[in-house]
Design goal:
Helices cover 37% and strands 25% of the residues. The chain is of the alpha/beta class and 221 residues long. The radius of gyration is 17 Å and the shape is globular. The chain starts with 5 loop residues before the first strand and ends with a helix. It binds S-adenosylmethionine.
């Protein structure tokens, strides 16, 4: 089996102000994760969060490019549903899975067409092989990524797609999971192969992964 890894930098330069906003968001995330305060934080922020949301608009197209018309899409940690709003109508089913009741409330209000489910991404309430494509935009760090990836793997159809925007390994002391080697180990261990990798500014990396089949993992595909 040959896996093509297309490693490139984000084609458009990202303005400095945008990098600065990303750095602030990055630091806030570190604080929330290290202090285990995500339920409190996301209970308080839904409205202001939406106004900051365009900070990562440049990564939107990367996510949108992974979805083919008519597919079922599941976003884990979907927040206020910003990304899913962009594909409602294109995907057959849009599902947002989110822990915070307050974020979900806003998501439902803004996009009643999508299906929003309250739940934990480390314990997904979906049937195996029921989802074609899954996204995580800045959410997988909030949990043990290995547990979430196992759940996502199970929910995806064979050769299904998982796309994720994660912090780059800029604070390895804070994010030991996301040291590049560790991250790759976790993807391999949970049955994913990286098919595309795009550096988004200095702080984030976007990855497209494919759910590997048993035979491809055994090297006989
Ligand atoms: C940085 S926000 C990203 C939201 C959305 N993906 C976006 O791009 O706007 C992280 C989200 O993950 C959610 N989250 C944290 N832990 C979670 C869990 N265990 N299961 C589901 N969602 C979770 C938070 O409530 C929050 O809405």
């Amino acid at each position: 089996m040959s896996v093509r890894t297309d490693k490139r930098h984000f084609p458009r330069p990202i303005p400095l102000w945008n990098e600065a906003v990303m750095a602030l968001i990055h630091l806030t995330e570190v604080l929330i994760i290290k202090t285990n305060t995500s339920p409190v934080f996301y209970r308080l922020v839904p409205k202001p969060y939406e106004s900051f949301r365009p900070w990562s608009a440049f990564a939107d197209d990367l996510f949108l490019s992974t979805l083919r018309s008519g597919q079922t899409i599941l976003e884990v940690g979907s927040g206020t549903g910003y990304l899913l709003r962009k594909v409602t109508g294109k995907a057959t089913r849009c599902i947002g899975l989110e822990l915070s009741k307050e974020m979900l409330k806003l998501a439902k209000k803004k996009n009643p067409q999508a299906l929003y489910v309250r739940g934990d991404m480390t314990n997904l309430p979906f049937k195996p092989a029921s989802v074609d494509c899954s996204w995580s935009m800045g959410s997988i760090l909030y949990v043990d990524p290995e547990r979430a990836l196992r759940e996502i793997h199970q929910a995806l159809v064979d050769r299904g797609t998982f796309a994720v925007l994660v912090e780059r390994y800029i604070f390895p002391a804070f994010f030991p999971w996301f040291r590049s080697t560790r991250l790759r180990e976790v993807f391999a261990k949970t049955g994913f192969v990286i098919t595309e990798e795009v550096f988004v500014g200095h702080l984030y990396v976007w990855l497209k992964l494919r759910k590997a089949t048993r035979s491809s993992l055994a090297g006989v595909e």
